[in-house]
Design brief:
The protein is α/β, with parallel strands linked by helices. The chain contains ten helices and 16 strands. It is about 25% helix and about 25% strand. The strands form three sheets. Strands 4, 5, 6, 7, 8, 15 and 16 form a seven-stranded mixed sheet that branches. It has a six-stranded parallel sheet with strand order 11-10-9-12-13-14. α4 (about 155-170) packs across α5. The chain is globular, with a radius of gyration of 21 Å. Bound molecules: NADP nicotinamide-adenine-dinucleotide phosphate.
Length: about 350
């Protein structure tokens, strides 16, 4: 567990004001590096602006983006506004769930006491903390059927899966859909979402995860340690490579003549090939191949809330870590073998 450091000069306390009114605990980093650079510190509690909602965070979840930002990898991130020499946003964590503590004067959708969940990525992150203040577009009322931990597991992973299948993949009822990397944060949402769109779903994972992907509705499972799905003669209408480790020609071979391949992540080689050659394949033949990057937005979060409340999708949580152990949670996710989502309890 990380030791807490106090910034005595940050956010001066006024007479009659208690320290807990003005300060909060947060997992902070001031230099790029390994998870060791993360420290639990006492920092100033955010004050909501007129168009902001102050959320008391009950749970957050960890995404690959957190360790990319922590390490500034790929290097290009430094040129994309995240801070050239040191991080611009010192508190990571995009997915949150909690209570509305206060609202700015222009807020119309929420009031104090509401239970909400959302994605702070477009608004400077800040989820690995006791409080975060964000515009109301970042938030949606928490599904009544979910715990805070379950709700915090949803935003980024579910929207990546949803947008990959629906917006890039144009998924249709009755299609044969294969999810590669089906047992992780995004994959467990992708399997359930593809089922909810009426597809026949094949999930690819390793031996220890076969039961998990069956339990969330996969019609067929392929153990990648025993069988190479790109060489077994089966063809799919849509392949979503959540964690893709094959070459683009392997994926092309496993597609129907008019099939679509979408990747959200995986090996650098596979991502790079898709970026470079995908547009060429898509333009010159009937198959479509391309990347999908998730776009946080309130409309899709509401779409997910409805599916979650209808019990068509249920978050799969692997491990929970307390706020002080965010570094361990990131190390665990970075190892690449999470079974569902990794959640932080605040
Ligand atoms: N496009 C976007 O906007 C976006 C957004 C978020 C994340 N991402 C990227 O999407 C990818 C997946 O993210 P995630 O959060 O789902 O990751 P994750 O939770 O860390 O994925 C872990 C899962 O991947 C499986 N896996 C590892 N190697 C595999 C292989 N060779 N074949 C099949 N499955 C394998 C693991 O299963 P085993 O233990 O059985 O191997 C584990 O269950 C990452 O590359 C991430 O950077 C993209």
């Amino acid at each position: 567990m990380t030791q807490m450091k106090t910034h005595s000069n940050e956010g001066e306390q006024r007479p009659g004001e208690h320290k807990e009114d003005t300060h909060m605990r947060a997992m902070v980093y001031h230099t790029y590096g390994s998870p060791d650079v993360l420290k639990l510190e006492e920092v100033q509690k955010p004050v909501p602006q007129d168009d902001e909602v102050l959320v008391q965070v009950h749970a957050a979840s960890v995404n690959a983006g957190d360790w990319h930002l922590l390490r500034a990898k790929p290097f290009l991130m430094r040129l994309m506004g995240y801070g050239l020499l040191k991080p611009k946003h010192t508190i990571l964590g995009s997915d949150i769930a909690g209570w509305v503590e206060a609202v700015g004067r222009n807020i119309t959708q929420f009031q104090s006491g509401d239970e909400v969940f959302g994605n702070t990525a477009k608004y400077g992150f800040g989820g690995f903390a006791e409080y975060v203040s964000v515009p109301e577009e970042a938030l949606v009322l928490k599904p009544t059927t979910l715990s805070f931990e379950e709700a915090a597991a949803v935003p980024q992973a579910a929207l990546t899966a949803l947008q990959g299948l629906r917006d890039k993949g144009h998924i249709q009822k009755g299609q044969k859909v294969l999810i590669h990397g089906a047992s992780g944060g995004i994959g467990t949402f992708a399997v359930q979402l593809a089922k909810s769109f009426g597809a026949e779903v094949t999930a690819v994972c390793s031996t220890r995860n076969l039961d998990i992907v069956r339990s969330i509705g996969a019609d067929h499972v392929i153990d990648y340690t025993q069988e190479d799905f790109t060489r077994n003669g089966q063809r799919y209408d849509l392949i979503l490579a959540v964690n893709g480790y094959h070459s683009i020609s392997d994926y092309k071979r496993a597609l129907n003549p008019e099939g679509t391949y979408v990747t959200t992540g995986g090996s650098n080689a596979q991502m790079f090939q898709t970026m470079l050659l995908g547009p060429l394949v898509s333009r010159t033949g009937r198959q479509k191949m391309g990347n999908s990057a998730h776009k946080p937005n309130q409309r899709d979060l509401i779409f997910m809330k409805e599916l979650l409340e209808a019990s068509k999708v249920k978050p799969v949580i692997d491990r929970r870590f307390p706020l002080g152990d965010v570094a361990d949670a990131i190390r665990y996710l970075e190892a690449g073998h999470a079974q569902g989502k990794v959640v932080i309890t605040v």
